């Protein structure tokens, strides 16, 4: 069942937030930029993971569960699932 909610994704009571990104390793626009700003350690971990999981098959997709730690400190029980795709 899908429940539609209007509001701020980052104030959601969800246990998991999903941020899909392409292989550009930038996160410079849209919701990806917000994830990068709010959770900078997640972005650094994504870069480490991406560099270790390069593939010659551009169509291959990988996912990674990364812990989220807010940039302003505090507890955060959420995880980010990041899917790697060639482009949008």
UniProtKB/TrEMBL annotation:
Q: Under which name does UniProt file this protein?
A: Macro domain-containing protein
* Lineage, uppermost ranks: Bacteria, Pseudomonadati, Planctomycetota, Candidatus Brocadiia, Candidatus Brocadiales
| GO BP field | peptidyl-glutamate ADP-deribosylation
